[in-house]
Design goal:
Shape: globular
Number of domains: 1
InterPro entries: Cro/C1-type_HTH, Lambda_DNA-bd_dom_sf
Low-confidence stretches: 66-91
Strand content: under 5%
Structural class: mainly alpha
Radius of gyration: 13 Å
Keywords: DNA-binding
Protein name: Helix-turn-helix domain-containing protein
Pfam families: HTH_19 (PF12844)
Oligomer: single chain
Mean pLDDT: 75
CATH architecture: Orthogonal Bundle
């Protein structure tokens, strides 16, 4: 199960629409739909926000199975979140990870980095 399948499953659990998720991320609805269909790769800059929206860890986005709990709450994501501004969405890199162990390592490192940046 790929990341696209995982975010589709998580979105269905939360009852969010493609448009609602796209609006929260500041992207086009078709871009988000392409991620779910695995037609295009998710830009790495959106991974932490997706985890936040769905109330799961970054690692949960990459793992198969149903780990982590999901709630349909706007508290998971604030549309006016000041921790990441629009300028942060203008640049990024794409990382396509096919090895689950590498995904685990990267996700834990990203989570640690984000915690440190918020301090």
């Amino acid at each position: 199960m790929g990341v696209g399948t995982n975010i589709k499953r998580l979105r269905n659990k939360t009852k969010f629409s493609h448009q609602e998720i796209a609006d929260m991320l500041g992207i086009d609805r078709n871009t988000y739909a392409n991620w779910e269909n695995e037609a295009t790769d998710i830009k790495s800059q959106f991974i932490p926000k997706l985890a936040e929206i769905f109330g799961v860890s970054i690692q949960d986005l990459f793992e198969s199975g149903e780990k982590g709990s999901v709630t349909n709450s706007q508290d998971n994501f604030q549309l006016h979140d000041s921790s990441i501004g629009q300028k942060d969405f203008q640049q990024g890199i794409i990382i396509n990870i096919t090895d689950s162990e590498a995904a685990k390592i990267l996700s834990s490192q990203l989570e640690e980095l984000i915690k440190n940046l918020r301090k």
